[in-house]
């Protein structure tokens, strides 16, 4: 058995827009994705895995397979269809039923307030680039805390500020599909960190019971070789994607090293970066009050120097070997033939998770605890027939080796309290659609029937073994 403490939380993760479907039901407002997906015409967010109607079955299945914690996000646009104004009673009632169902099945809900789904009205006004969204987010959070603080004790403000900003303004895979806009990417990160901090401070001021954290997508970067310019490109890449946000999260300010590097990357545009004194004060108050950090770790990347034009090709189809990622003045992701990849060109490297945990321990010794809030394998699972269990041994190997990396870090003194596999069930993937499956449970998207995968059975045995330790 993988050595994990008896108290280790074995959970699973979901996100509202990816599982719920029902995107136009019961007064839900539109989000940034609706028009984008309609226009693209590649795939639809409806019915996704129809969690909106089938949550009871999914929560029961989770319970039956040893899961004791579930990451669920609230769709802001179900509560406030336009981001602010009058709350939508049906949305408020829906999430109460979902959280009550979790508790009935002894599952602790970990609730995310923003998981890539800004209401359309706010998106059209600039999304996180518009500082007014920060107050709207705070008002929404205040309402939601009041509505559910009696039953929800674990909160996550924002899911992956960098991945959202990166998708929107660098790779263009997320609406509004802008590319290579480095300034916007940094500005969005900063504004999200301010919004996060305001909500942490509010939660603590009000004295709610429970914990509040922030989830970061953390990719581990390694230099492709020992050439100084590649080592330097890796350092820059890391600051752009990880270090800038980690400073704000744990220290409550940006260190000179981070700001100087961002200045080098943004060059002339740096002057336009809008970071205000009162915002820095807010970060400073929030940092020591943060109860946990969630790490979403999927992959590591190998980097080399790149000074020419930016060019990104997003492999959103699973055609192996098609990804290209080069950002002028930051670095280029290069091929490393020694490391296996998924069909979407994500490097499978559990050591990177271990290194990331160690890095947080070393660089930010004031952290209180870490949770791995997402980790899992995107795979083209094959359904054979009703009788044959879906054999996803590759997913089991992926999860097991990453849990081994966590186990090693814990043994060496890191405080990592839990693991949430991405994902509970197959669902819709933002820029990839439905053929990139991550679930412990297979969904037939035509019939919406659920099938247990081998990984779910393995997860159940692991949960048992952890719980039965003396
Ligand atoms: C994270 C997101 C999830 C999920 C996951 C897998 O960045 O928080 O919502 O989608 O990545 O990514 P993808 O669906 O692109 O494979």
TrEMBL record:
* Nuclease found in the keyword field: no
EC number(s) given by UniProt:
3.2.1.21
Keyword annotations of the record = Glycosidase, Hydrolase
Which PANTHER family does the record associate with it?
A: GLYCOSYL HYDROLASE, LP05116P
Q: Name one GO molecular function term.
A: 6-phospho-beta-galactosidase activity
NCBIfam families linked:
lacG, PRK13511.1
Per its UniProt record, what Gene3D superfamilies does this chain match?
Glycosidases
Q: What is this protein called?
A: beta-glucosidase
Pfam families given in the database record: Glyco_hydro_1
Q: Which family does it belong to?
A: Belongs to the glycosyl hydrolase 1 family.
The catalytic residues are 374
Its gene? Answer: lacG
Q: What is the lineage of its organism?
A: Bacteria, Bacillati, Bacillota, Bacilli, Bacillales
